[in-house]
């Protein structure tokens, strides 16, 4: 590459709309749970593309599925259907509560489809006034205007008024507040089994069970946003399977494609049939490339070996983080399930999660934040014991630097 063609981090500031503030280094390749930047510095990847890279980087299962499909058929639109999308739909239906699937390109689009369907259900069941939606504070459901309003973090929506109406936010894990908020005009409750962006906060089992019972009683659609918790992330195929609580609609994305953009809304025949031809749509959703990759990833993850491995890796992570905190006295709590883990900073380090994330990259390990006070880990579901140990060693060095700074 000639000098004038060199890509640098400065080019981001020159050419990109400034809605992101990426790290100062540029990653150029990856293998497994290791990635390298332009200077060939190696990092252990505990971020996983924000819970997306379910099989890590350059996994042969995903590569083979993509390249084989790329030789056949890329895109035909939903004027026609295709074999890969039907195979993926079959797998999702046979392995979950759902009878029907709608495919799209992201978690936000999946939630958009779910919320629109809930409004349509409300109209059919209770008339034009049954359109109220209950969500929860600190939740995150996407960045479209509808989903960012449904999310319970005003910092993401306050500058884009007027916002869609009829959405109310209450305290997470507060069943009595939820019951008080649900009225005869409520069409849906949308909830994350574990709040990801909100701090890796698991829902109490009694809370989810109570929501299920009350939504059934009041003819309210219960939506589980499993964009971040789905496809093996918690050690089960979907987090609802850990609870005994079955939603009416489930949204999934992120890990489903292992890095290839895809999302899906899953539901039962009862609710799916309230959508009619033309009610909703997508140009790229369910295209053969995305569907072929997602099907291969899904089948690989949906095995006892991988799901048990996620549970084993959770134990290794938690024990390692606890050891770090014993020597550094940095974390108040380690929480989460499977390979969605949040380490909550002690009050004296409040607001400094971003600083520790940056410092960790200096030491060669990529981590995430979940708000200003929580370090989040969402690595590959098939990360090896050695990669976990090496990453935690590097993270420990960053932590000890951090507490002395």
TrEMBL record:
Where does the record place the modification N6-(pyridoxal phosphate)lysine?
254
CC cofactor note: Binds 1 pyridoxal phosphate per subunit.
The record's section on InterPro entries has:
Ac/SucOrn_transaminase_bac (IPR017652), AcOrn/SuccOrn_fam (IPR004636), Aminotrans_3 (IPR005814), Aminotrans_3_PPA_site (IPR049704), Class-III_PLP-dep_AT (IPR050103), PyrdxlP-dep_Trfase (IPR015424), PyrdxlP-dep_Trfase_major (IPR015421), PyrdxlP-dep_Trfase_small (IPR015422)
Transmembrane listed as a keyword:
no
Q: Where in the cell is it found?
A: Cytoplasm
Question: Which residues does pyridoxal 5'-phosphate bind?
Answer: 107-108, 140, 225-228, 283
One cellular component term from this protein's GO annotations in UniProt: cytoplasm
- SUPFAM superfamilies xrefs: PLP-dependent transferases
Needed co-factor(s): pyridoxal 5'-phosphate
Q: Which residues form a coiled coil?
A: none
Q: Which Pfam families match?
A: Aminotran_3
Q: Which superkingdom? A: Bacteria
Q: Which Gene Ontology molecular-function terms are recorded?
A: identical protein binding; N2-acetyl-L-ornithine:2-oxoglutarate 5-aminotransferase activity; pyridoxal phosphate binding
What's any GO biological process attached to this entry? Answer: L-arginine biosynthetic process
Subunit structure and binding partners: Homodimer.
NCBIfam families, alphabetized: arg_catab_astC, argD, PRK01278.1, PRK05093.1, PRK12381.1
Q: Which PANTHER family match?
A: AMINOTRANSFERASE CLASS III, SUCCINYLORNITHINE TRANSAMINASE
The family annotation for this protein states: Belongs to the class-III pyridoxal-phosphate-dependent aminotransferase family. ArgD subfamily.
Query: Can you say what this protein is called?
Result: Acetylornithine aminotransferase
């Amino acid at each position: 590459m000639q000098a004038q063609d060199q890509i640098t981090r400065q080019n981001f500031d020159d050419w990109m709309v400034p809605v992101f503030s990426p790290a100062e280094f540029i990653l150029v390749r990856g293998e497994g749970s290791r990635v390298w930047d332009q200077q060939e510095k190696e990092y252990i990847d505990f971020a996983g593309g924000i819970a997306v890279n379910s099989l890590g980087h350059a996994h042969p299962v995903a590569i083979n599925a993509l390249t084989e499909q790329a030789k056949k058929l890329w895109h035909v639109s939903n004027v026609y259907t295709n074999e890969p999308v039907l195979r993926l739909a079959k797998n999702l239906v046979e392995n979950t509560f759902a009878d029907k699937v709608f495919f799209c390109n992201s978690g936000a689009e999946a939630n958009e489809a779910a919320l629109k369907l809930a409004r349509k259900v409300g109209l059919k069941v209770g008339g034009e006034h049954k359109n109220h939606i209950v969500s929860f504070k600190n939740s995150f459901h996407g960045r479209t205007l509808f989903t960012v309003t449904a999310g319970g973090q005003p910092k993401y929506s306050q500058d884009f008024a007027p916002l869609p109406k009829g959405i109310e936010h209450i305290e997470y894990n507060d069943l009595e507040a939820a019951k008080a908020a649900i009225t005869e005009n409520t069409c849906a409750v949308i909830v994350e089994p574990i709040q990801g962006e909100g701090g890796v906060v698991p829902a109490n089992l009694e809370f989810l069970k109570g929501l299920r019972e009350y939504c059934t009683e009041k003819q309210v659609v219960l939506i589980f946003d499993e964009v971040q918790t789905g496809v093996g992330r918690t050690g089960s195929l979907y987090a609802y399977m850990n609870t005994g609580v079955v939603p009416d609609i489930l949204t999934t994305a992120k890990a489903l494609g292992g890095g290839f953009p895809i999302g899906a809304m899953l539901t039962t025949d009862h609710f799916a049939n309230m959508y009619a031809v033309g009610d909703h749509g997508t140009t790229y959703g369910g295209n053969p490339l995305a569907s072929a990759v997602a099907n291969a990833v899904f089948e690989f993850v949906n095995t006892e070996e991988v799901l048990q491995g996620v549970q084993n890796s959770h134990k290794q992570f938690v024990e390692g983080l606890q050891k770090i905190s014993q020597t550094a006295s940095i974390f108040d709590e380690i929480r989460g399930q499977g390979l969605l883990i949040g380490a909550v900073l002690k009050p004296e380090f409040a607001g400094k999660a971003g600083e520790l994330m940056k410092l960790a990259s200096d030491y060669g390990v990529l981590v995430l934040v979940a708000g200003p006070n929580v370090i989040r880990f969402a690595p590959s579901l098939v990360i090896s014991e050695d990669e976990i140990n090496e990453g935690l060693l590097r993270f420990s060095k960053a932590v000890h630097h951090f507490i002395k700074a």
